[in-house]
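W.,

You were right to be curious about this one. When I first looked at the sequence I had no strong expectations either way, so I just let the prediction run and decided to look at it fresh. Below is the sequence, 117 residues in total, followed by the output.
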Amino acid sequence: IFMVQDGVLLTPHEDHCLPGITRETVLSLATELGILTCVRRISLAEFHSADEVFTTGTMGELTPVVNIDGRRIGPYDVHVLKEDRHDSLIRNPITQRLQKAYSHATHTRDDWSTPIP
């Protein structure tokens, strides 16, 4: 799990979340993009007041969290693709940058994926 507060990407230490390849990839990509990162203990109250929150995983890749305990997260709306195929809302900007970078990296960096015959 990750959160963004004032432009800084934060995630708990590995003893407070599941460590994994996707998590490490996101931390690497954030560094490449010039996004400040911080790995530290994070309270539930901090997640409630975060600008952005997202989870990572092999199948879900980077998935925005819109609310926690019924509380809306951040000042930004989650991306919605309407039936007319036009984007109507703004997605969390740092989450969106990382989603695009992740998708690009996994499709273009041969050493970041393993083809299945």
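Here's what jumped out at me. The radius of gyration is 15 Å. And, maybe more interesting for your project: DSSP finds three helices and seven strands in the chain.

Coffee later to discuss?

I.
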